[in-house]
Amino acid sequence: MEEEDEEARALLPGGPAAAGEGARAAPRALPALCDPSRLAHRLLVLLLMCFLGFAIFAMIILLPFRLRLNKWGTIIFSCFVCVGQVVFALGGIFNAFWLMEFGRFVFGIGGESLAVAQNTYAVSWFKGKELNLVFGLQLSMARIGSTVNMNLMGYLYSKVEAALGSAGPTTLGVTLMIGAITCILSLICALALAYLDQRAERILHKEQGKTGEVIKLTDVKDFSLPLWLIFIICVCYYVAVFPFIGLGVVFFKEKFGFSTQAANAINSVVYVISAPMSPVFGLLVDKTGKNIIWVLCAVATTLVSHMMLAFTMWNPWIAMCLLGISYSLLACALWPMVAFVVPEHQLGTAYGFMQSIQNLGLAVISIIAGMILDTRGYLFLEVFFIACVSLSLLSVVLLYLVNRARGGNLNYSARQREEIKLSHTQ
């Protein structure tokens, strides 16, 4: 306890003298890496936040519950992820498909909730001019995780198959159990983040973990029109990206005559581009502001990409590269806008609701896309995706007009936001 007090006193502006201990020498300040008010420490937190979501890819509808999204909630959700992955792997080992389904259900309960906690951690530690870059880095790590997973699991399966001498459910289960190591890494990051968040509250004498920590569905009635427009943009945009990528391999093989290897390569280029470009675009949006304009550019570019794929026989690498660039830009500019229009105590609810309706939209649209593909073919499917992106584009225009009419801050430049921040601190 004495060490904790000494650590806190080291960061007080007046040191011990401020506490009436002028005769004693001021204790040495904490190293930058251990000081929660310094950039180095916050970068450590950012690293843990990125690895927190490295292994997460699931879909659920968040239920009405009250949990601290930071600290204990993050730890609980990470435990769900670990347990779910282990149960999923056991289902493979014992050749029990129902057990695998149950494992994915448990994984999903923790996975998406953990993604919401990751967002609220980002706002809690980096709210301000760095927020867009932080969201970009988180997206980048998630895409790297997806790429590693797609390329590594097949290799692991072949090695396990060679070691066991046969293929089948047992080989699959053992491979999935090895994959559970990344989930354990996520749990370790959650524990470390919880400790650092608690430590920052004690040293800085503020409740950093309180930002958006409670999911409270009664807050939905207080959501503003700009926030609902952000939700619509999010859903209508992502339903034209992820379901398309899910069906993309066969599309490129049938329309453009690509081999399976070439089709896989071009279909994954969206994620390959987003990994390095997301931090770059995050920094760009941080430096310039104008989030709505950047979202408008991203959605319009995505619309052009889908129209090229639908109505031309141009080299599809051009369209897919455009899609990868626009996908990266949108995530960096769109998700941080929630923090600009929602009070801090509602951030958990807002991000949870946004994540939920996005996943609901993906589930419904994936089914509809499959039905359109089976009955009408790829041209009609692309027209459907174009309609979704067009609705997203219309919503962006409406958001711009509403924000302008209300004098909102969504499209402020970086300089304007900095001036407002300085005026509030004076």
Strand fraction: under 5%
Helix run count? 16
Helix content: over 70%
Gross morphology is globular
What structural category do the secondary elements indicate?
mainly alpha
Q: Can you write the helix and strand succession as a string? A: HHHHHHHHHHHHHHHH
Residue-averaged pLDDT: 79
Largest β sheet strand count, sense and barrel closure: none
Span between N and C termini? 35 Å
Low-confidence stretches: 6-25, 56-69, 208-213
Work out the number of β strands.
0
Question: Could you give a short description of this structure?
Answer:
By secondary structure, the protein is mainly alpha-helical. It has helices spanning 2-9, 39-52, 72-93, 97-126, 131-164, 169-204, 225-238, 242-256, 260-267, 269-288, 291-311, 316-334, 338-341, 347-375, 378-406, 414-425.
Textual characterization of the structure:
By secondary structure, this protein is mainly alpha-helical. It contains 16 helices and no strands. The radius of gyration is 23 Å and the shape is globular. Residues 6-25, 56-69 and 208-213 have low confidence and may be disordered.
Q: What key attributes describe this structure?
A:
16 helices
Helices, strands, pairings?
Elements (H helix, E strand, L loop, with lengths): L1 H8 L29 H14 L19 H22 L3 H30 L4 H34 L4 H36 L20 H14 L3 H15 L3 H8 L1 H20 L2 H21 L4 H19 L3 H4 L5 H29 L2 H29 L7 H12 L1
Helix pairs in contact: 2-4, 2-5, 2-6, 3-4, 3-6, 4-14, 5-6, 5-10, 5-12, 7-14, 7-15, 8-9, 8-14, 10-12, 11-12, 11-15
